[in-house]
Write a sequence for this structure.
RNA sequence: GCCCCCGUAGCUCAGUGGAUAGAGCAAUGGAUUCCUAAUCCAUGUGCCGCAAGUUCGAUCCUUGCCGGGGGCACCA
């Protein structure tokens, strides 16, 4: 509808110029918006104000000229008006809204899909938590945001891959091994001090016990470094598979798991280092190797190889990101915790240094989650190993509630996650509010079927026969209640909501859209009976609510939330 | 000190330059002989942190300041 109005305006402006009603042929991009206030019409454009200076005419005069030349062959307009400083407001005929329902039924799960991504290969890397402990609530938010963003991009026509980067190399893995080995020694009664920098959680003891059960005291006889390395590998593998299970129970499935260690094994890190040394981006100073990230906007250069000869995390990360592009991705998106924001300039610099455009790389910085219970902060101490894991949260509040709540804020806003609130089955909790729409509609459809109402024939066929087409137009005519038109209008906005959400990579826009649509539906439901006495009217209303149901299911799917038939 | 994010109704937050700034919660009162009351309806609240600038027009863009959070390693 919006596009239709836009075309009409462009045509009118062109005609007006050709007929001499407008002096200049210079036309700005036409912007159409849905006014906040209903009295301002269904759509409005600011074009006459924008054109005023170029045309050297008063905005309202321009608006008049445009309206005079406006052609409306399909008769979609009820009226137009000039308002305020020069807005042109468009009022759409009630019946002109109806065809969108056919479109929704036709496209079904594809309604709202677009091709703005044009098949571009994009990778979304998210979670990527170190395999040194279980996922916590913050990772859950990253998972929800990353997964939904990837889903939305896919729906917008991108060729998307979801990837998890495993930091299975370096110091923290060694620390992990040391932690497990120390606990292992304790199991055999050996006095050991457990340093503060070691991982404190009980899961470390569990892993140590597993090793004891399997290997007995064999590790005690071994060279300590070897024993630690054994513990490290086993623990990382163990923890990683736990992470994978947690993510699966959260409904997140990755297309690819990428090992940091593999970058060393394959020689990618060395090759990267040689490459940038030859190009002069890596140089030696104070016995270390530095990357000249300051050439590309970073505040200072960064170390890639330390004095002690060990590479930094940054080094493998450069190689990793080079590899992403080598694998053919046009665009690379990283989802990081907000505490990593200082890391962005150097990462972006390394990508620019390799000749890539900086807008091929995006970082979504996800802000912290404050875990609450009844409004009170839940005490968590990583040091003491006391924390609530993502799995705990999923078990307590359920996957749907958790995912939805993670997506009820812009990712850059800190999020309060209240465990009690997440379980509440009231209006406070938006998940159920939206899901309830789906369940309610399902229930009506069940009832309808029980009563033997024919409701599926003709609704799904993409090429309706003559008879079906006229039947559909007959039932559409029954939809004229204000609440019905409101609902349909809300549904027309779904595709653009998805597009904007994809362009900005902001999944919360879908969340808000769904809450809004849900509200329009509940209001309608409470005022009008779908299964009415008049069979034609009933068909019309079923046609309407089935479209609502499709969008709810469709939108929830993008967020990774289920659409229940019953609640 | 430098960098990033936030500052909008009592609370939690939407609002990618438009007209009279919105929603939920909280508060009060109401709605179900009938499709799920996990629902709906009614009642009001704002120097959009402050100040300049850009613009026909700024909650939105720019700059400065104030307040809150986070980050500034040869850690990850």
């Amino acid at each position: 509808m919006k596009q239709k109005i836009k075309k009409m305006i462009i045509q009118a402006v062109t005609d007006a110029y050709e007929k001499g009603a407008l002096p200049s042929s210079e036309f700005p991009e036409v912007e159409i918006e849905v006014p906040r206030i209903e009295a301002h019409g269904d759509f409005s454009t600011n074009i006459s104000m924008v054109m005023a200076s170029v045309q050297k005419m008063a905005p309202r005069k321009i608006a008049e000229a445009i309206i005079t030349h406006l052609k409306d062959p399909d008769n979609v307009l009820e009226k137009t008006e000039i308002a305020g400083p020069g807005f042109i407001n468009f009022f759409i005929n009630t019946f002109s809204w109806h065809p969108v329902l056919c479109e929704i039924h036709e496209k079904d799960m594809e309604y709202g899909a677009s091709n703005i991504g044009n098949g571009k290969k994009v990778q979304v890397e998210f979670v990527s938590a170190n395999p040194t402990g279980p996922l916590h609530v913050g990772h859950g938010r990253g998972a929800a945001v990353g997964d939904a963003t990837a889903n939305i991009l896919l729906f917008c026509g991108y060729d998307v891959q979801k990837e998890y980067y495993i930091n299975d190399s370096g110091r923290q893995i060694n620390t992990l091994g040391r932690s497990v080995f120390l606990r292992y020694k304790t199991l055999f009664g050996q006095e050991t001090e457990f340093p503060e920098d070691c991982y404190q959680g009980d899961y470390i003891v569990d892993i140590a016990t597993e090793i004891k059960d399997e290997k007995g005291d064999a590790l005690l006889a071994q060279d300590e470094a070897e024993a630690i390395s054994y513990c490290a590998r086993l623990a990382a593998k163990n923890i990683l598979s736990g992470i994978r299970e947690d993510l699966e129970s959260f409904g997140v499935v990755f297309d690819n798991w990428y090992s940091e260690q593999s970058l060393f094994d394959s020689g990618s890190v060395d090759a990267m280092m040689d490459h940038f040394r030859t190009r002069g981006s890596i140089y030696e100073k104070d016995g270390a190797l530095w990357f000249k990230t300051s050439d590309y906007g970073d505040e200072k250069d960064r170390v890639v190889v330390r004095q002690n000869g060990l590479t930094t995390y940054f080094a493998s990360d450069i190689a990793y990101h080079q590899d992403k592009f080598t694998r053919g991705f046009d665009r690379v998106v990283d989802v990081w915790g907000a505490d990593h924001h200082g890391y962005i300039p150097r990462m972006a610099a390394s990508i620019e240094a390799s000749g890539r455009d900086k807008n091929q790389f995006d970082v979504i910085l996800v802000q912290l989650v404050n875990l609450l219970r009844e409004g009170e902060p839940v005490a968590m101490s990583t040091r003491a190993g006391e924390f609530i894991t993502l799995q705990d949260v999923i078990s307590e509040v359920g996957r749907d509630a958790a995912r939805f709540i993670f997506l009820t804020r812009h990712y850059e806003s800190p999020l309060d996650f209240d465990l009690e609130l997440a379980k509440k089955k009231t209006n406070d909790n938006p998940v159920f509010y939206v899901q309830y729409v789906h369940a309610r509609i399902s229930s009506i459809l069940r009832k309808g079927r029980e009563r033997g109402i024919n409701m599926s024939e003709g609704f799904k066929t993409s090429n309706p026969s003559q008879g079906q087409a006229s039947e559909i137009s007959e039932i559409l005519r029954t939809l004229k209640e204000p609440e019905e038109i409101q609902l349909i209008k809300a549904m027309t906005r779904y595709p653009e909501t998805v597009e904007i959400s994809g362009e900005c990579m902001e999944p919360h826009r879908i969340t808000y859209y769904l809450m809004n649509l849900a509200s329009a539906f509940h209001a309608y439901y409470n005022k009008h009976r779908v299964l009415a006495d008049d069979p034609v009217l009933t068909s019309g209303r079923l046609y309407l609510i089935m479209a609502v149901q499709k969008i709810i299911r469709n939108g929830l799917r993008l967020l990774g939330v289920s659409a229940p038939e019953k609640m």
